[in-house]
Amino acid sequence: MYILGLNAFHGDASAALYRNTDLIAATEEERIRRIKHWAGLPVEAIRLCLEEAGISLADVDVIAVSRDPYAKIGNKIWYVFRQGISWNALANRALNSFSIKTLKKDIAGAFGINASAWKAHVTYVEHHRSHLASAFFVSPFEEAAVLSIDGMGDFSSTMRAVGRDNQLEILDSVSYPDSLGIFYTTFTQLLGFPHYGDEYKVMGMAPYGKPRLLEKLNDAIRLLPNGLFQLDSRYFSHFRQGVAMSWDGGAPVIPPLYTDYLVAQFGPPRAKNMPLADYHFDLASSVQTMCETVIFHLLNDLHRRTGLKNVCIAGGVAQNSVANGKIRQQTPFERVFVPPAGHDAGTSIGAALYVLHQKEQYPRPAFRHEAYTGTKAASGIIEALLHQRGIAFDRLEDTALFNEVTECLLHAGVVGWFQGRAEFGPRALGNRSILADPRRTDAKDLLNAKIKRRESFRPFAPSILLEAATQYFEDPDEVPFMEKVYRVRPEKQSLIPAVTHVDGTGRLQTVSKQDNPRYYRLIQTFGEKTGIPVLLNTSFNENEPIVNTPEEALECFLRTEMDMLVLEDIVIRR
Prior knowledge:
Elements: E1 2-7, E2 14-19, E3 22-28, H1 29-33, H2 43-53, E4 62-65, H3 73-83, H4 87-101, H5 103-111, E5 121-124, H6 127-136, E6 143-153, E7 156-164, E8 167-175, H7 180-190, H8 199-205, H9 214-217, E9 221-223, E10 229-231, H10 238-241, H11 260-266, H12 278-306, E11 310-314, H13 321-324, H14 327-330, E12 335-337, H15 347-359, H16 381-389, E13 394-395, H17 398-410, E14 415-418, E15 432-436, H18 443-452, E16 461-465, H19 469-472, E17 484-487, E18 505-511, H20 517-530, E19 534-539, H21 550-559, E20 564-567, E21 570-573
Parallel strand pairs: 1-4, 4-5, 6-11, 11-12, 14-20, 16-18
Antiparallel strand pairs: 1-2, 2-3, 6-7, 7-8, 9-10, 13-21, 14-15, 15-19, 16-19, 17-18, 20-21
């Protein structure tokens, strides 16, 4: 049986294809369209999945979409009449729901087949059930508490559950309009970051400030005795106007969510070119602290109710790696699993897995890390590209290549590293990465100024050999997907300043020989030469989606000031 999982007509549109319980491919549409957080129907992602499987659309048996227009329908109707939601907001929601209902027809039309003759049937999986499934069913746990938490999906912002074997039992949920994700987004907008997905910038800002405004924020979001939370409607416009997401040209846009009352309490939104002041950093710190407080409140109550030692987390808020790294210290949970695509793109995997396990009762396969599920370069295409462009290169076997790359890094070089299949999710995990020497005190400024061209306060991540993680970080978990932040040991901070944030932490990626043997050997070679088995790893892009193909990697290399580009076993020098 072939199951096509989709996140469609929503930010971070994506597709995933399973053959029974084997994941064939999964990718975000943005990687192919080259528009960040692309929303709409993920036609190109579907095409990639089919090509990887060597099948046509006609072979697909089930389309599992991570939306259910009928979820909480009673709550929706009651809320509309109680709050007097504007007709414009209602029209937007109805139009979006209609898009989901015509999904099969739209896909068939895009691929030029007859929808009525296509055997596949569409299964709608509630948004947060998809998130829950995307975490628990791929986790190493036979039994775990599960938390999904994001902005909003199918009239819920949060859902808690217990996972056992191949089944999920829903415990409770938080309904619209209360949302921790919307709380964070609203203040992200106020801080002058208006684009969809900008919340990570506030997380990066937070260590530069102090949570001096935390007491004021207690009025905007309140913890409830039942382990949940509630927003104060005076601060957030969506209580009356809804969240009118649009995606003209593919990029999702959300209008300002703050009210005049919020502005009166916290000041006017920061203008685009206005310098960041101490107040902005303090507000970011306060918002991040409040977000963590709510997450730990949800989790502590979830542990009280379940008594389980393992927890899985998904949803947009689960991308808050700072909070994730504190869970074992701030709650009784002993093991924490976050999938590589915990955000909405991951719901394509979750919807497919929900159908496979929850509905069709397929047993779960043995645990394995599955982050490298995207596109790969066909044999011979890289060499043909470079010949066509008249670019000189060398082809090296691995040992010589690792030595060449590490020598470049040791001499202050910056390396674009492209290998294998692209990662699924927002993090570069060693297959589409830009690498630098973590010992350099100027590496952060160099990368920001010459390549990444992004805000100076944003940190860079360390990739470290799994077995060395405890030597450099305080009580780290296994972190294969760069999804948690831990404190760098004080005596090690001066050794790896380029990947140590201002508060002494790092968002690490632990690299194992089993998960990525080639990237592991590169870090190992660098460690043999320096005594430090760590590389600075940032995503291979420049204010664009992470590069997907050799052509995109080459173009990024040529328009920036990288010193070396590695495309599989081919080396290009500046």
